[in-house]
Amino acid sequence: MKSTDQPAPANRMLSDYLCFAIYSANLAFGKAYKPILEELGLTYTQYITIIALWETDHQTVGGLGEKLFLESNTLTPILKKLEVMGYLERLRDPEDERQVRVSLTKSGRRLREKALKMDLVEATGLAPDEFAKMQKAIVTLRNNLIKSVEDGE
């Protein structure tokens, strides 16, 4: 990876690091989501898995993992737990037995009605246009970092 950053001054503070700002914002999101997730009985990772399935149901485990940026060894226990909770089912693809497809159950689809009433947009203190710009900028940052790592391999 090449860096175009200037050398960091010796007195650089933790709050000056973009990576720390993103890390601590992620922690703050976790705290803000906590009451919502407790009401749904889900962890954050389970919640985003359900959201990804609301978006596109009947996905392969591999495709779902790519969408969520999760490795199979992380995603599989999440899917097993959600299956035990009655929110999804995993079935071998009849056309390709090597693939496992994940589909929401009626209970998994019904969670959406409850979850859509729970929104953190207002909690961010951002106007709708600022929120959209921030989300887009963070996605761009993430994609650039992923590309940088892949280019360095």
Properties at a glance:
153 residues, mainly alpha, Arc Repressor Mutant, subunit A, 2 domains, 3 strands, DNA-binding transcription factor activity, DNA-binding, Organic hydroperoxide resistance transcriptional regulator, Transc_reg_Sar_Rot_HTH
What does this structure look like?
The structure is a single chain. This protein is mainly α. The chain folds into 2 domains: 14-117, Arc Repressor Mutant, subunit A (Orthogonal Bundle); 119-153. The chain has 7 helices and 3 strands, in the order ααβααββααα. It has helices spanning 18-40, 44-55, 61-68, 72-84, 106-115, 121-124, 128-152; strands spanning 59-60, 88-93, 96-104. It has a 3-stranded antiparallel β-sheet. The N and C termini lie close together (9 Å). Keywords: Cytoplasm, DNA-binding, Transcription, Transcription regulation. It holds the Pfam family Staph_reg_Sar_Rot. One of its GO terms (molecular function) is DNA binding. One of its GO terms (cellular component) is cytoplasm.
* Helicity range: 55-70%
Beta-strand fraction estimate: 5-15%
CATH class placement of the largest domain = Mainly Alpha
Reading side by side through the largest sheet, how are the strands ordered?
1-3-2
Uncertain residue ranges: none
How many beta strands in the DSSP annotation? Answer: 3
SSE arrangement, N to C: HHEHHEEHHH
Q: Whole-Å distance between the termini?
A: 9 Å
Structure class: mainly alpha
Pfam families: Staph_reg_Sar_Rot
InterPro entries: HTH_MarR-typ, MarR/SlyA-like, Transc_reg_Sar_Rot_HTH, WH-like_DNA-bd_sf, WH_DNA-bd_sf
Protein name: Organic hydroperoxide resistance transcriptional regulator
Subcellular location: Cytoplasm
